[in-house]
Design goal:
There is one protein chain. The chain has six helices and 13 strands. The chain is α/β, with parallel strands linked by helices. The protein has a single domain, classed as Metallo-beta-lactamase, Chain A (4-Layer Sandwich), CATH 3.60.15. The relative contact order is 0.16.
Length: 321
C-alpha cells in the first residue's frame, strides 16, 4: 500500500488515447483469411475464427471496480458499442475479477441467448445476474465445449479469483485461459496468469497456434506470482507455440505502479531480442494474423523502467520448500 500511494510513474495518460472507432458495419462479413482478432481494450477481444465469433472477457463499464464512483477508470471509451456487436456464438470469461467480468455487459448480452463459457462456479454468479442455466457451460481445466467444428478448451493458469472487497469469496471459483481450435485456425488466450510449467503442455496438446493473446500489464515484483510481466509473457508465448503475439491486459486501466506505456516498451525489447512475431493493435484495431501489420507507435514516449531496473520473475520452486 505504501508503494501504491507513493507511485510517481505516469500510470494514466495525460492526453487522449487514440482509438479505432468501430461500428456494426465493420463486422457484417467474416474475414477473408478465416481469422480476425479485434482488441477492444484491456482483455476484451472479439475473435472471429473459421466462420464463428467469440467475445472474450467483455468489459464495457467505466471502472474496473465494484463502485461507480471509485476505482480504476477507463483510459478511453470502448471503440465498439455493446449494441453494435455482431451475432456471437459464445462469450468466454476467464475469471471473475472486475477487469474481466462486467455485470452490466453480461446482463445486456444474456437476452440474446448467447452461450457463456466459464470456469467452474463462475456460472453461479451469472445465474444470480439473470443468465439462464442452459446458457452457461462451466469447464474445469482441460474440459471442452464444442461449437460446430470449433472447440473451446479451458486451459490451466496461475492466478486467483474473488470479487468481494473484504475477500470473503477468494478462490471459490476457478480461473483459466482458453484454446480456441477450429478446422483451419487455432487461437490461445492465456487469461490472467503468472509463469508456470504448463505452457509447454498446452502448446503440445492444443497448438501450435496462429495467434496468442497474452497479458503484458499490471505487474510488479511484489505480485510476480499473479501476473506475467512482459518478459515472461514472451517466454510463455514461445513455450506455447504462440504464432503471432497480440498483447492484452494493458493501456486501459491503472492497475499497477508502472508507467502505462511500460508494458509495451518492455515487450518490444524482448520480442526483438527473441525474434517473437508481434503486433500492437490500437484499441479497436482488427488484426488478421495471416497478414499482420508492422508495429506502429500509437502511444507516447514516456519514461519507463527496464527489466533490469524492475525485474518481475515468478517463483518456480518446489511448493514444499
Amino acid at each position: 500500500m505504501v508503494e501504491w500511494f507513493r507511485k510517481d510513474a505516469q500510470t494514466v495518460p495525460l492526453e487522449p488515447v487514440p482509438i479505432r472507432p468501430r461500428s456494426a458495419a465493420d463486422f457484417q462479413s467474416t474475414p477473408s483469411t478465416g481469422l480476425r482478432i479485434t482488441w477492444l481494450g484491456h482483455s476484451t477481444s472479439l475473435i472471429e475464427i473459421d466462420d464463428l465469433r467469440f467475445l472474450v472477457d467483455p468489459v464495457w463499464r467505466k471502472r474496473a471496480s465494484p463502485f461507480e464512483w471509485a476505482g480504476p477508470k477507463r483510459f478511453f471509451e470502448p471503440p465498439l458499442a455493446l449494441d453494435d456487436l455482431p451475432s456471437l456464438d459464445a462469450v468466454l470469461i476467464s475469471h471473475d475479477h472486475y477487469d474481466h467480468l462486467d455485470r452490466r455487459a453480461v446482463q445486456r448480452l444474456a437476452p440474446t441467448g448467447v452461450t457463456f463459457v466459464v470456469p467452474l462456479r463462475v456460472g453461479e454468479l451469472l445465474m444470480r445476474w439473470g443468465v439462464t442455466r442452459d446458457q452457461i457451460v462451466e469447464l474445469d481445466w482441460w474440459e471442452i465445449a464444442s461449437f460446430g467444428d470449433v472447440t473451446i478448451t479451458a486451459t490451466p493458469a496461475r492466478h486467483f479469483s474473488g470479487r468481494s472487497a473484504i475477500m470473503t469469496d477468494r478462490n471459490r471459483s476457478l480461473w483459466s485461459g482458453f484454446a480456441i481450435v477450429g478446422p483451419r485456425h487455432r487461437v490461445y488466450y492465456a487469461g490472467d496468469t503468472a509463469m508456470f510449467d504448463g505452457f509447454e503442455e498446452i502448446g503440445q496438446a492444443l497448438g501450435p497456434f496462429d495467434a496468442t493473446l497474452i497479458e503484458i500489464g499490471a505487474y510488479n515484483r511484489l505480485w510476480a506470482d499473479l501476473h506475467l510481466g512482459p518478459e515472461q509473457a514472451v517466454q510463455a508465448f514461445h513455450q506455447v507455440g504462440g504464432g503471432l503475439l497480440i498483447p492484452v491486459h494493458w493501456a486501459t486501466f491503472d492497475l499497477a505502479m508502472h508507467s502505462w506505456v511500460e508494458p509495451v516498451e518492455r515487450l518490444l525489447v524482448e520480442t526483438e531480442r527473441t525474434g517473437a512475431p508481434v503486433v500492437v493493435p490500437m484499441p479497436g484495431e482488427s488484426i488478421e494474423p495471416a497478414a499482420p501489420p508492422e508495429v506502429e507507435r500509437w502511444w507516447p514516449k514516456l519514461a519507463w523502467q527496464t527489466a533490469e531496473e524492475h525485474p518481475v520473475v515468478s517463483w518456480t520452486g518446489d511448493a514444499s520448500e
